[in-house]
Structure formats: structure tokens, C-alpha cells
UniProtKB/TrEMBL annotation:
This is Uncharacterized protein. It comes from Halocatena marina. InterPro entries: DUF7473. The keyword Membrane applies. The chain crosses the membrane at residues 12-40, 69-86, 98-120.
């Protein structure tokens, strides 16, 4: 039995979108900061917070599409935001974006499994 990852507790109102955006923003900011610490070194967390707002905002509007559409669009918007906020060259932007996706996938997969495990008990 699978666990639906989108609850319908408050409908599709503005509050639901706002809370979803804030959760996605915090998740993307935390994972981007971890990736930046790994790739760049010591960097202020405010940059990750600023850059993470873009993929969090875009993900709200494209979540209904297939992963083959969502992943490249989010990757591109994430790379553009990272490039402008961190002011990196193209190669370093690509490395940081790939590291961000790897860390986000690992942490997201772990959180999904924890939530699923807790829901079964």
C-alpha cells in the first residue's frame, strides 16, 4: 500500500500553495547549502536561501507533469538561480547543480521512506 505524498487537508486554496512553497523552499535551501559547502567550501547560507526560492516556486506550477518534463525544467531553473546568486562559471554551476540534485534526491528518498514507515505503524 502506497502513501500519497500530497494530502488534501485544506483543498487547493492559497494557504495550501503557500505552505507547500515554504516547505519546498526550506528543503531546497538546506540541500543547496549542503551542496555548496561540499563543492565551494564555506559560503553564507543566505545565498542558498535566495537561490532555492526559484526551484521551489517553479515546482509548484509544474508538479502535475511527468518527471521527464519536470526534472529538466527544475534542473535548468536551479542552475540559472545558482549561477546568478553564487556568481559562478558555467562548469562550477553545473557541478554545484548536480551536487544539489544528488543531495536532494538522497535526503528526499530518506524522508519519504521515514514518512512511509511511520505511516504504517
Amino acid at each position: 500500500m502506497g502513501l500519497p505524498m500530497q494530502a488534501d487537508a485544506s483543498g487547493a486554496g492559497l494557504l495550501a500553495y503557500l505552505v507547500t512553497f515554504l516547505i519546498a523552499w526550506v528543503f531546497y535551501a538546506a540541500t543547496l547549502h549542503l551542496a555548496a559547502l561540499y563543492v565551494i567550501g564555506d559560503t553564507p547560507h543566505q545565498r542558498a536561501t535566495l537561490a532555492a526560492a526559484v526551484p521551489a516556486f517553479v515546482s509548484l506550477f509544474i508538479q502535475q507533469y511527468e518527471p521527464l518534463v519536470v526534472i529538466p525544467i527544475l534542473f535548468l531553473t536551479d542552475a540559472v538561480a545558482i549561477h546568478f546568486v553564487y556568481q559562478l562559471y558555467a562548469r562550477m554551476t553545473l557541478v554545484l547543480t548536480l551536487a544539489h540534485y544528488a543531495i536532494a534526491a538522497i535526503i528526499g528518498f530518506a524522508l519519504y521512506n521515514i514518512i512511509t514507515l511511520l505511516a504504517l505503524t
